[in-house]
Design brief:
490 residues, alpha/beta, seven-stranded mixed beta sheet, globular
Length: 490
């Protein structure tokens, strides 16, 4: 059809990436995955890096396949938050971006809080304190590798780094800037107070632009190399969470969303940041989304616990599928033990099942032994962590929410969806799986005036995909479990 518009989304997750073309026929958006690839970090010496040369090669493959499948008018990139590369004065990347799970940020809280009062730090940035945040990665460089900062002229966040490699344009999109803990959340500018207190050179921080801003055309050299037509690169919400939130298939003003993948981002959308003593004590973050909205949310370790446990089982010679793990969990007795999914020992790569056993041992709980007991413990603990966060957000905003919209890869996990609805005692709407791609593509269409606004985009996305509904069950039993779970969260 001649009126179909085509936009290409590159969606990078922490373990894989996809190139997806979205076609709009005036009523619905049809997605076509043209390329999928692994995103495997590489350890060199004692440092864990993202394999940037390989990832950019995959971007090029995605461009070629999208061109061959019917072409595209615009393209955009979204990624995880907090990570970055440093660019030298000659325009070259000084080193591959370091992975947020690298241990270089260990102990950086204390170093930072000696230079900037923790309460003031949160009041300015509104960000949840996590050692993986950009601010603490930079502090590790200030403390341990000042020479690399001296040789750098620009810091570029991951989604804008791919834009830079495609177009040569240096910029920082607002949503990804809001993951750094360097942004003044009220005036939406880099905070000189924070940057100067931490000793981070101001010159490194590029211009901040709103989502929907053009990053320029794909360079002539790349078009010639790949044999593709020039296309415009749009800086959409660079943080994948904000693309996913933009795709929540709801017409409600007040709603809860969970962007569920390797991480679970659990939150709501507000008109202004929520920064007060309560949100600070609960360590809830504020990020900036599309059209100036704030997403008030908590970063929770998500399906990473399942993914990394499966890798450990495989190392032990047991190559379970995810469906088999779910079946084993269902066969195991419920509510025997719980973990705090956000405990720091569960962040690094490694033997998650053994760390779960150690957590249970230290907290005088039943120690899970079988694979099914381990996975059941993870599922139930995640669902109950969602309940805890749900209560905290309601307390901070003073609002009640009638529905939870779960989007992303977790939609495929029916057990987690059922448990979440029951643990939170709230109806749960699951879908779309490809929320991040939908949001990325919708923002491109809005930027080019194909779709008028985000409200219309959400209606289109809801009509374009299947949304499943899960009703709460056995809520009294889940409440009893929650009362027990909450005692192991400190």
């Amino acid at each position: 059809m001649s009126n179909i518009k085509r936009a290409l989304a590159f969606d990078f997750g922490a373990s894989s990436g996809r190139a997806i073309v979205g076609s709009f026929d005036g009523n619905t958006i049809k997605l076509e995955e043209v390329h999928r690839f692994e995103n495997i970090p590489v350890k060199l010496g004692d440092t864990l890096y993202w394999d940037l040369p390989r990832l950019f090669h995959e971007v090029k493959q995605g461009l070629v396949k999208a061109h061959n499948s019917g072409g595209f008018d615009t393209a955009a990139v979204d990624t995880w938050g907090v990570d970055f590369a440093l660019i030298g004065s000659d325009g070259h990347i000084l080193e591959c971006p370091v992975h947020y799970r690298d241990e270089r940020t260990s102990g950086m809280f204390d170093y930072a809080f000696m230079r900037l009062n923790k309460e003031q730090f949160y009041k300015i940035t509104g960000n949840q304190f996590m050692e993986i945040n950009t601010a603490f990665q930079l502090i590790s460089l200030v403390k341990n590798r000042p020479h690399i900062l001296k040789n750098a002229s620009s810091l570029i966040m991951m989604p804008n780094l791919f834009n830079y490699l495609l177009t040569g344009k240096v910029q920082t999109e607002l949503s990804i800037a809001s993951t750094t803990q360097l942004l003044n959340m009220v005036n939406k500018k880099w905070s000189k107070t924070v940057v100067n207190a931490l000793g981070i050179p101001e010159r490194l921080l590029p211009e901040i632009v709103p989502a929907g801003t053009s990053a320029g055309l794909i360079s002539e050299d790349i078009c010639k190399e790949l044999g593709i037509s020039p296309a415009e690169i749009i800086s959409v919400c660079g943080h994948d969470t904000q693309c996913a939130a933009a795709a929540a298939p709801t017409s409600e003003k007040d709603f809860i969303f969970i962007s569920c993948g390797t991480w679970s981002l659990f939150g709501t959308e507000t008109n202004e940041p929520v920064i007060n003593d309560k949100s600070a004590s609960l360590n809830i973050t504020n990020e900036l989304g599309y059209e100036g909205k704030t997403t008030f949310l908590k970063n929770i370790i998500g399906l990473w616990l399942i993914q990394e446990s499966r890798r450990q089982f495989k190392r032990e010679g047991k190559d379970y599928s995810y469906a088999e793990l779910e079946r084993l969990a269902l066969q195991s007795e419920p509510f025997k033990c719980f973990i705090n999914p956000d405990a720091p020992e569960f962040v690094p790569v490694g033997n998650i099942p053994e760390r779960i056993r150690e957590f249970c041992r230290k907290t005088n709980q039943y120690i899970p032994e079988t694979e099914g007991e381990i996975i059941r413990c993870i599922y139930e603990s995640l669902a109950l962590k969602y309940r805890q966060t749900f209560d905290e957000i309601c307390e901070c905003t003073g609002k009640n929410y009638n529905g939870i919209y779960l989007v992303g890869g977790g939609v495929k996990d029916g057990l987690l969806c059922r448990m979440t609805a029951s643990a939170c005692n709230c109806k749960l709407y699951a879908g779309p799986i490809e929320a991040t791609a939908y949001g990325n593509i919708a923002i491109q269409f809005i930027a080019k005036c194909v779709i008028p606004d985000i409200k219309t985009a959400r209606q289109i996305i809801a009509a374009s995909d299947t949304i499943k509904t899960f009703e709460p069950e056995n809520t009294d039993i889940w409440q009893t479990a929650y009362d027990k779970f909450i005692t192991y969260q400190n």
